Here is the input.
Amino acid sequence: MRKIIILTALCALSLTSLNSCEDILEEEVYSELDPSIILSTSGGVDKVLNSAYANALSSRGNDAFESLTLSGFTTGECWGLGGSVNAWLAPLSNFTWDANNSALNSEWNRKYSAIRDANLVLDNIQNVTASAEFIKTRTAEAKFIRAFSYSRIYKLFGPGPLFASSTDPDIIKAKASEEEFQNFVETNLTEAANDLPLVQSEYGRATKGSALGTLVKWYLNQKEWTRAAETAKSVIDLNQYELFPDYKGLFQITNEGNKEMIMVHPSVVNVAGNQTTALTLPTDYPSLPGQTIYAANTYFYDAFIDSFEENDKRKELFITEYVNVSGQTIYGYGNNKSFPYKYELDPDQASAQNGIDIPELRYADILLARAEALNELNGINQESVDILNQVRNRSGIGSLEMASLDTESFRQALIKERAMEFFFEGKSREDQIRYGTFISSAVERGKPAKDHMQRFPIPQREIDSNEKMVQNDGY
Here is the structure.
């Protein structure tokens, strides 16, 4: 499988003069990143754009795992035990997080780094000697990365500062208004979708489906039902995507690039891989030499396993018991310690760096988004039922009949279906917030959850360095 090689960083180092105390106080800062040089060629544009991709859609190291657990650990979908990462995982499960949580810092910093890189491309690409098609496509990609990154900031923190150019003289900004932030995201995604191609020659680059699909989820989470339904139909009408016939096979390395995956977090084994399996599996789980497994474990509760219907093939992607390296049978189910195996150990893995891609957006998500939006707009309807049944039938469970449903019972069936379909894909938090159950379900689990915790706190480092930044309410 071809991989787009994602650069991990693009460094801009400061050169300072330290000749005297006065020089220190009056230092001039020069950057080694001169846009007129590095962004004067198509190769330079791609280097900066690859850096933007790396920051926006990285799965390297803990990056993908952080994205999954910021959702799953806060919704009660899963929980963790052991390892150094427990310092930021436990507060997520216990609703005791604060503005110094390292996962929140990482998410904020990576997304604003992606925005910086995208803005550098957008501000300089018209000066590049390249084909009109190259300039059009890379411009659209940069707009997509910028909008996707802002949408992720909004999903976690609400509005942040808006930077529309790398030459903006005001680098210390307050949070944008809700309306300004939302309009910016929607405009950029729409413009990107207009100019992005249906397919890209390099695996992992943004496509028209990536932009439209991200817009679908944006409208859905804003409860703009008409726009969500219409945009989902636009993705369907592209005729580029379909449900992969085998749910288990959908996630396997041998099937990477299948037509259900609209957008992924690409991984390259042992080079720029993710550590999700290393932070999920128990250390005594049988593995090949060199396949590193850390002390951290990620578990699912028995109640979640029990919520699947009897013949649901999706349940096969949990390991409820296993024979460890010492020949002992370890029982996870019955102890709230079943663990997910949605992301398999990579047979080529000789480190903690797994090469499996982590999904960001699947066609099943688009289908269920349309079904949900139509139900909210029109009440129970045959198209919504048919869509839901497509997803259910792929997993080996029977169809629902429209005659036995009304608007509310369909809503509840769809809520359950999303939980089963997208477990450990980072969807549960946004779903519970949209359904209005994020705080109430946490309280039922005995957590000290408050309404303001539907948004995370702005990272303290940002508050300390930006005099115009105001912390989110309640923190």
Q: What stands out?
A: The longest strand covers residues 261-265. The CA atoms of residues 319 and 339 lie 5 Å apart. Residues 4-30 have pLDDT under 50 and may be disordered.
